[in-house]
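User: Sequence recovery, please. Input:
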C-alpha cells in the first residue's frame, strides 16, 4: 500500500505492538459493547465464519439457526477496524519519520544490534497478543513451528528442485527422539518407565533434546538420500513417500514407544520465548545456507544438473548436504511440536501433514525465505479461520491452492531473497 511505502519495518512493528496493547486495554469492553459473545480470537474472522457456518448448516442440514447472530458479522468488522486497522494506520503514519531516523542510526551499529531491536518489538507484539487467551498462544506456537517446517522443506523442493514427500517422517523422528530424551530422562512415564535422572533445572537440557531429535532426523534422511540421489527424475518422490509410510508404520508397531497411542507427558518446556528463539535461529541459518556458495551451487543443480556437474560442482554432495540440512530442521520442528502438544502419536505424521506442509511451500513461493514465511502463516491462519466450516474448509483451501497454481505457479512470493540489512533499513532517502 502506498500509504506505507515510506514506513520502515520498525514503524510497522510499532504499529503491530500498539494494536496488541490497545486490544489488551479495550478488547473485552468493546466486544461487550458491540454485543459480541466474547472478545474475537483471530481478528474477528472466526466470529464471522461461525455465522457463515450456521447459515450453511441451515441450508444443507436444516439445523436451527439464531438469526440475531447475523449482527455478529458487522460487529466483528467494527471490532477489527477499531482495534486493529485504525490504530495500526495511525501509529505507522505518526512513527514513520522518527522510525526512519532511528533505522538510519541503527545502520551505523553492528547488524546484531539492529536485529535485536527489531526482534524485541516483534516478540513483545507476540507476547501481548497471545497473552489474552490460551487459544491464541497455542495457535501462535503452531504457526511459528509451521514456519520452520516450511522453510526446511523449501530447501529441498524449492532450492534443490526435487520433490520430497518424507518431511512428516523426519518430523516424526525428531518428535519421538526428543521426547525419548526429555521424557525418558526426566519424567516418570507409564510407557517409558521411571525417569533415569531427576536433576534440578532439567529444562536447561531442552536445547540438547531438540538438537538430538534433529540429528536423528538427519541420519534418517540418509536412508532416503543414498538410494535416491543415484537416480534422476521422480524417484526421490517415490522413495521419500515410501520412507514416510515406513516411519509411520515403525512407530505404530513399536509398543515400547507407545505404539499407536504414542508418547504423552512431555515437559512443558516449549514456551513462546523458546520457540521464538529457535525459529529465528532457524530462519537465520537457512537464509545463510541458501545464500551461501553451497546454496548457489544448489540453484545450479536445480536449473541444470548436468551443466552444474560439467562446471565442477559436486552435485551429489551438494544435494546430500541440502537434504540432510532440511531434515535436521524438520526434526527440530517435530521436537517443538511434541513439547507444545505434550503428546505425539504416529497418526499426526501422515498424508494430511504432508499435504499441509506442501500447501504452505507452494502457496507461499518456491526458492524464497519470504515465501515460506508467507505460506506458513497464511495457510495456518486460514485453517484456523475456516475451522467453523468443518469439512467444507477442505474444499475451500484446495480451491484456493488451485487458483494460486493456475495464476502464480511458483507461489505468491517466489525467488525473493531475504536481505536482512535492507529489511531493517530506512525507507526514505537520507
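Assistant: Recovered sequence (430 residues):
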Amino acid at each position: 500500500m502506498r500509504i506505507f511505502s515510506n514506513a520502515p519495518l520498525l514503524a510497522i512493528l510499532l504499529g503491530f505492538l500498539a494494536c496488541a496493547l490497545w486490544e489488551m486495554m479495550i478488547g473485552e469492553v468493546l466486544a461487550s459493547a458491540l454485543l459480541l459473545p466474547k472478545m474475537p480470537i483471530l481478528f474477528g474472522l472466526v466470529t464471522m465464519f461461525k455465522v457463515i457456518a450456521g447459515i450453511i448448516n441451515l441450508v444443507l442440514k436444516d439445523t436451527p439457526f439464531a438469526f440475531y447472530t447475523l449482527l455478529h458479522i458487522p460487529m466483528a468488522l467494527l471490532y477489527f477496524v477499531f482495534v486493529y486497522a485504525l490504530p495500526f494506520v495511525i501509529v505507522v503514519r505518526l512513527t514513520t519519520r522518527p522510525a526512519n531516523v532511528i533505522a538510519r542510526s541503527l545502520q551505523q551499529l553492528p547488524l546484531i544490534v539492529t536485529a535485536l531491536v527489531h526482534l524485541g518489538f516483534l516478540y513483545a507484539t507476540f507476547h501481548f497478543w497471545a497473552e489474552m487467551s490460551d487459544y491464541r498462544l497455542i495457535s501462535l506456537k503452531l504457526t511459528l513451528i509451521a514456519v520452520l517446517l516450511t522453510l526446511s522443506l523449501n530447501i529441498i523442493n524449492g532450492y534443490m528442485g526435487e520433490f520430497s514427500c518424507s518431511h512428516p517422517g523426519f518430523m516424526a523422528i525428531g518428535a519421538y527422539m526428543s521426547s525419548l530424551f526429555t521424557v525418558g530422562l526426566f519424567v516418570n512415564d507409564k510407557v517409558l518407565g521411571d525417569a533415569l535422572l531427576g536433576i534440578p533445572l532439567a529444562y536447561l537440557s531442552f536445547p540438547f533434546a531438540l538438537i538430538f531429535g534433529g540429528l536423528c532426523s538427519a541420519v534418517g534422511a540418509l536412508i532416503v538420500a543414498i538410494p535416491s540421489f543415484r537416480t534422476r527424475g521422480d524417484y526421490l518422490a517415490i522413495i521419500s513417500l515410501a520412507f514416510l509410510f515406513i516411519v509411520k508404520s515403525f512407530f505404530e508397531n513399536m509398543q515400547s514407544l507407545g505404539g499407536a497411542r504414542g508418547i504423552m507427558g512431555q515437559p512443558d518446556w516449549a514456551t513462546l520465548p523458546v520457540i521464538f528463539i529457535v525459529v529465528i535461529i532457524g530462519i537465520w541459518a537457512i537464509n545463510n545456507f541458501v545464500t551461501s556458495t553451497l546454496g548457489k551451487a544448489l540453484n545450479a543443480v536445480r536449473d541444470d544438473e548436468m551443466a552444474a556437474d560439467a562446471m565442477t560442482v559436486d552435485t551429489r554432495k551438494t544435494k546430500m548436504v541440502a537434504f540432510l540440512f532440511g531434515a535436521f530442521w524438520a526434526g527440530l520442528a517435530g521436537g517443538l511440536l511434541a513439547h507444545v502438544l505434550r503428546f505425539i502419536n504416529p497418526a499426526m505424521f501422515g498424508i494430511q501433514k504432508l499435504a499441509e506442509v506442501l500447501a504452505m511451500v507452494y502457496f507461499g513461493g518456491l526458492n524464497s525465505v519470504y515465501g515460506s514465511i508467507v505460506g506458513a502463516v497464511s495457510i495456518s491462519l486460514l485453517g484456523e479461520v475456516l475451522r467453523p466450516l468443518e469439512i467444507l474448509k477442505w474444499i475451500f483451501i484446495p480451491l484456493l491452492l488451485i487458483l494460486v497454481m493456475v495464476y502464480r505457479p511458483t507461489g505468491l512470493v517466489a525467488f525473493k531473497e531475504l536481505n536482512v540489512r535492507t529489511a531493517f533499513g530506512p525507507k526514505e532517502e537520507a
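The mean pLDDT is 86.
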